[in-house]
Each structure stands twice: as C-alpha cells, then as structure tokens.
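Input sequence (243 aa), recorded before submission:
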Amino acid sequence: MAACRMALLAMATLAGVAQANAEPRAVVELFTSQGCSSCPPADALLGKLAHDPNVIALSLAIDYWDYIGWKDTLALPGHTNRQKAYSKMRGDRGVYTPQVIVNGTAQALGSDQADIERAIGQSHRGSAILSVPVSIKVADGRLTVDAPAGKGSEEHAEVWLCPVTSAVPVAIGRGENHGRTITYHNAVRRWIRLGEWNGAAASWSVPLKEIKNEGADGVAVLLQSGTANRPGPMLGAAMAALQ
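Predicted structure, token format:
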C-alpha cells in the first residue's frame, strides 16, 4: 500500500508539473534572470515549490538584465511588462529579481521561503482568491478548460493559458552567472488569451498542436481579474501535464 501511494505521488509530480488541481492555495510567479547572481537560490526554491501539488509555481524570465553581459534565453518582454504592471497596481517601484508575486496580490523575495509563505497568507485575506475551481482536460488532441459559475454576477476575469517547460537546464556562458548551469522550473514559454470569464459557467478548447512548441510539456491556466496591463487578484488556476 505504501509503495502504491509513493507511485501515485511520483506520477502526480512527474517533471515538476502537477496535474489539474481544483483547489490550489497559491499561484507563485517568480521573476528571474539568467544574468542575475542573486537568482539561482530563488530558481532552486521554485523547483521545490513546483513539486507541491497545492502550488502553481511559474518561472517568468525577464530581459532587463540582458545588457550586463548575457542574453537570457528564456526571457520574454511580456514578462518584464507584467512585473512592471504588478508594481504599478501596488503603487510602488518594487521591480527587481528575484521577485515573487503570489496570487496576483502580494510580493515576496523569491529566495526566501518564509517570506513567500507570509505572502501566501497575506494574499488569502481577499475572499475571492482562487475561489473558482478551474479544471483542465487533455484528450483527443485538444486541451479543454472548464470554469464553473461564480457566486456573483459582478465577477470577471481574463483567462490565460501558459505553456510551460517543466525543467530547462541552461549553461550560462557570460555575465554574473558565468560558468554555471542552472535549471529553470515551469518556465513560461507563451501567454495565450483564451477569453473572458464573466461569472457564468464557461469552457474553452484549443488544439494541442498549437501549444506543444519550444519544448512545452505542461500548461498553467490562470483566471485573473483585471487586464494584462492592470492585473488583479487570481480568481482561479490549474495546472496539467501535456500527454
């Protein structure tokens, strides 16, 4: 019996990507950079969090440190814009690496597990946080996302699909991390806007062939209030491996 439980746990955490989970306690977004000497401890910690089935841990590589000697091979300009948008919504200038944003509302130092746990607790002071049990199904060459009806007609969120690569080892040839090989966990490769959720039960479906590129072996789905330029609290989220 114990062996069966261990096998099931291993399957659920295969490649660091949890299967669709209706009740995660946190979406942890790590803003990191291959050119940042302070980031490797945070990258390692995110790898640990990625194996927690109740945490959706995402690595978002930014590009504003590229000028100091190494062009980040995973960076997307949209990640830099997202980090700045979070800062604008908070009303501060807190943009740095390694920075974690938890559930779209609270920030923490990405290399400090206690600070991340504090931020998770702080984020749950909002009753709507992760209140929508999102589900993901991968079958017959398609990925389908379902969201149930909400509790109020005023609820609204954008629905984002993020293909991820569960583990990306990168040998860094220049810059502050010269000579190191660092593994990035659940590296976000793209952002695909599926549509909007307006409080009514809804479903979205996309062909897998539109997702499986650049080594993506999993997906995260985020139901986030606000907009890309003004991101708000995370209302729902799920993660699944691609088959």
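Checked by second reader. The first helix runs from residue 2 to 12.
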